[in-house]
Write the structure tokens for this entry.
Amino acid sequence: RKEVEQDPGPFNVPEGATVAFNCTYSNSASQSFFWYRQDCRKEPKLLMSVYSSGNEDGRFTAQLNRASQYISLLIRDSKLSDSATYLCVVTQNSGYALNFGKGTSLLVTP
Amino acid sequence: ETGVTQSPTHLIKTRGQQVTLRCSSQSGHNTVSWYQQALGQGPQFIFQYYREEENGRGNFPPRFSGLQFPNYSSELNVNALELDDSALYLCASTPRQGPSDTQYFGPGTRLTVL
């Protein structure tokens, strides 16, 4: 079983739609959680960290459920520029190896 | 921009050859990690270097090796290249101060093995 599993995607949504991505992780000792965004043929870039209390950054909301080992990302009012692959990332130890999911592809269409 | 650079951007090699990829991070970033990203997959952790010593390793064979230098640059060496080594190789550095989980990625080197 892979350590981090994500929705297979791809997600094709119209501009203005709300879209949600889900992710589960297998290691209950995991300490830190993130969503990264990766544009085609580019490097991953940190989108946001994920906290148990949930956190919001503009149109993006991330949630963590430690009991269920589940992470989510909600994007409201989708923009064309949101089209990218979204990677769920978990790490066991601070500053150590990042464990990436396979990624979920999002295409926002006009 | 993250201030992390990698060279070369693209590289083509043949099976059995050896390759060296380079990464240069910002001053003050004393930890560097290397990842392999195959097409359609998420990045996979290869190893991490801290203060010029290997600080942890993922599930990669010994023919993947690395070095970190005092000037915050780093190398990834791969011997006896195989077709499956074709991938995007990413390095990521971590600042000495600030959230220790934050890793800043370079643009990557795309390696093709024929």
